[in-house]
Write a structure and sequence with these properties.
Helix content is 62%, strand content 0%. The protein is globular. By secondary structure, it is mostly helical.
């Protein structure tokens, strides 16, 4: 089991863990956020680093679920069309 608290883990950390962003990109987006007041996810989309659908999926399917149950999801709990294809091969 992972040792982080889902109630305090931030979107940027999820995206880094998923391999979708680097720590440097998160730092840039946080600086942009401080300077502009824009939402973190909106900055990522504006910069073309992450699709809005990816952020919405991650928020809806992972972050909210983890916060509701109070612990990290177990690997393989959420099945996507990508994971189903991967299982077949």
């Amino acid at each position: 089991m992972l040792s982080y608290d889902p109630l305090t883990k931030r979107l940027g950390s999820y995206l880094i863990d998923a391999g979708l962003l680097t720590e440097s990109q998160v730092d840039v987006a946080l600086n942009d956020q401080e300077a502009t007041g824009m939402r973190f996810g909106d900055i990522l989309v504006e910069r073309g680093w992450v699709k809005r659908q990816t952020i919405e999926y991650l928020t809806r399917k992972i972050i909210r679920m983890e916060r509701e149950i109070g612990e990290p999801l177990k690997s393989g709990l959420i099945e996507t069309s990508y994971s189903r294809k991967k299982k077949k091969h």
